[in-house]
Amino acid sequence: MTKEYTARRNFVIEALNKIDGVYCPKPSGAFYCIARLPIDNADKFCQWLLEDFNFQGQTVMLAPATGFYSTPGAGTDEVRIAYVLNLTDLKGAMICLDEALKVYPGRVVKTNAEKAAV
């Protein structure tokens, strides 16, 4: 089981970091990761995914990371992604997330200076 979750983690982290504007460090021992997305508000983005977006009849369900921080305002552009699905489904989910980020009305485009500061 450890080998399977390691493969899932490695795939998800690599796929996320290939998406334009996304940054996701590799977690050490969890079955989820926290990813920074080019979005205005994680709560709104997660709700938009469920209510207004689909790609080829599917969407993805993410958890806003704001609920995982005690500091007010922390995690507003971050989401928690669990990699509990099989690799085939995770591949589809990463494609769906990439497509969602391309059309999300609250997408934030960062300048090169802002990217360098991350």
How does this structure look, described?
The chain is mostly helical. The chain has one domain (2-109): Aspartate Aminotransferase, domain 1, CATH 3.90.1150.10. Helix content is 43%, strand content 10%. The protein has 4 helices and 3 strands, in the order H-E-H-E-E-H-H. The chain has helices spanning 2-18, 42-52, 87-103, 112-117, and strands at residues 32-36, 63-64, 78-82. The mean pLDDT is 92.
Features of this protein?
single chain; 118 residues; mainly alpha; Aspartate Aminotransferase, domain 1; three-stranded antiparallel beta sheet; 4 helices; 43% helix; globular
CATH class: Alpha Beta
Number of structural units classed as domains: 1
Largest sheet: 3 strands, antiparallel
| CATH H-tier superfamily | Aspartate Aminotransferase, domain 1
> Average pLDDT, to the nearest integer?
92
Number of DSSP strands? Answer: 3
Summarize the structure.
43% of the residues lie in helices and 10% in strands. It is mainly alpha-helical and 118 residues long.
